[in-house]
Write a structure and sequence with these properties.
7 helices, alpha+beta, Arc Repressor Mutant, subunit A, globular, five-stranded antiparallel sheet, 16 strands
């Protein structure tokens, strides 16, 4: 029964995610605010029976990951931007994670975008139960370098478990020599390509958080706040923007965030930027390996 429900929920989450990406592509235009895009896409996911598995990431140009608009964010899409939209849907904790790259009214970085997309398409041809993660990385690296670019060596795909977005197994974007095989399960494959040096570094704080624990909190109001966060988001990432949406009338959000960070209860993800300010492209989909390989964005 659990497997049947999981398969049904993954299939539905995949369909919502695919359509949310299509909506994102229509929304990414000059002068449109990042806040409008994120709020619209996240609301679409909820209106269609899912819940965002993490805040929509809108990472532009040399930003590779973890940018989501904050409350009252004034940033807008501009002509020529290379925009990565990374989003996910969960239903009852079963997650589908996916990303696309859009160049805004230009083709200057067409080959860079194709490099990460073709790398993902090439992985689809070899992905199966038992394949080594180094073989996946080798394919990604070869495709991207054949385009004349570099993969981002310190970013990777990942295994997904129920309510756990990053479940312990990393799937590299290069041949790391690992003989760890892919087994049955759910996996996000996400090639990143860049015209830079091929590494990201930590930038500023992202306003994306995850609960590291919800025990040992002595202040009753703070404990209740954390309990409400866990009830709402479980073990998945969430944003300051969501906290203001869901809890602003009940709590001093900024005070509580600072207290929770100080006591290592909340972890805040850093925005990840390419070390040499190289432009970054990304494509991602989620596969369910169970008696075959199922691209969860390709199931109707």
């Amino acid at each position: 029964m659990i497997c049947r429900e999981m398969n049904t929920e993954l299939k539905k989450a995949g369909k919502i995610t695919k359509n949310a990406l299509r909506l994102s592509k229509r929304l990414v235009n000059p002068e449109v605010s990042l806040l409008e895009i994120a709020d619209t896409v996240e609301q679409y996911i909820m209106d269609h029976g899912g819940y965002p598995a993490f805040p929509v990431n809108i990472s532009i140009n040399d930003v590779a990951a973890h940018y989501t608009p904050d409350v009252n964010d004034k940033n807008i899409i501009q002509e020529g931007d290379v925009v990565k939209i990374d989003l996910g849907t969960h239903i009852n904790g079963w997650i589908v994670d996916a990303a696309i790259t859009i160049e805004v009214n230009d083709n200057k970085y067409k080959e860079l975008i194709n490099a990460s997309k073709d790398a993902l398409d090439s992985v689809k041809k070899i992905l199966k139960k038992g394949v080594y993660i180094s073989e996946i990385g080798k394919v990604i690296e070869e495709v991207i370098t054949n385009y004349g670019f570099k993969p981002i060596y310190n970013l990777s795909g990942h295994k997904i478990n129920r309510y756990i977005l990053h479940a312990g197994m990393n799937i590299p974007n290069y041949n790391n020599g690992s003989l760890i095989p892919i087994l049955e399960g759910i996996y996000a494959i996400e090639p990143f390509a860049t015209n830079g040096v091929g590494y990201v570094k930590d930038g500023s704080a992202s306003t994306i958080y995850i609960l590291q624990r919800n025990t040992g909190i002595r202040i009753p109001s703070l404990k209740k706040f954390v309990d409400n966060i866990f009830k709402r988001y479980k073990t998945l990432p969430f944003s300051r923007r969501w906290l203001y949406r869901d809890f602003n009338e009940k709590y001093n959000i900024d005070l509580y965030i600072n207290l929770l960070k100080k006591n290592n209860i909340l972890y805040e993800y850093p925005i990840l930027v390419e070390k040499s300010k190289g432009i970054v492209s990304q494509w991602e989909t989620t596969f369910h390996i169970n008696g075959g390989v199922h691209d969860l964005l390709s199931i109707d």
